[in-house]
Amino acid sequence: MPPFQFIKGEIDSYNFRIGPLKIGDEGASGLGSALAKCINLSNLTLDLGSNQIGAMGASGLGSALAKCINLSNLTLDLGSNYIGEEGASGLGSALAKCINLSNLTLNLGENEIGDEGASGLGSALAKCINLSNLALNLGSNQIGDEGASGLGSALAIMHQSLII
C-alpha cells in the first residue's frame, strides 16, 4: 500500500502523530498531498516533530493543507526539524491561503530559523484574514532582535481579536 493511502477524503477531523522517525521532505509532502484530498477536513492535529523535514517538506505540506478549504482549526508541530529560513517563510505563505483558518497552534521550535524566516513567517501569517487565535513557538532558533521585531510588527497588523 502506498504511504498514506489509508487517508480517505470524507473525514472532517484528524489527529496524526509521526515521530520521532526519519520522515523527510518527500514524506511530509506526501502526507500533505493525501490530506489535501480530504475536502471536508476542518480540524487537524498533525505532529511531525523530531523528524528530518526541511524547507521543501514544510512548504509542500503547507501548500497541500491550503487545499483543505474547510480547515478552520490546525495544530501543527514541526518542532526539531530542519525547515530553516526558507521553510518558515514558505509554510507561512501557504498557510495564509487557508482562508477559513481561525485557530492555529504552530510549533517551529528548534528549526534553524533566523531573522529572515521569522519576519517572513510573521508577514505571511498577517495575511490570514480569519485567524483569531494563534499559539506560536519559535523557541531555540537563531532569531535575533531584527527577526523578533519583524515578527512582532507583522503580527501587530493582525486583527484586534487575535490572541497570541
From TrEMBL:
GO terms for cellular component: cytosol; nucleus; perinuclear region of cytoplasm. It comes from the Eukaryota. SUPFAM superfamilies: RNI-like. GO terms for biological process: nucleocytoplasmic transport. Keywords: GTPase activation, Leucine-rich repeat, Repeat. Gene3D superfamilies: Ribonuclease Inhibitor. It holds the Pfam family LRR_6. One of its GO terms (molecular function) is GTPase activator activity. InterPro entries: Leu-rich_rpt, LRR_dom_sf, RanGap. The keyword Repeat applies. This is Oxalate/formate antiporter protein.
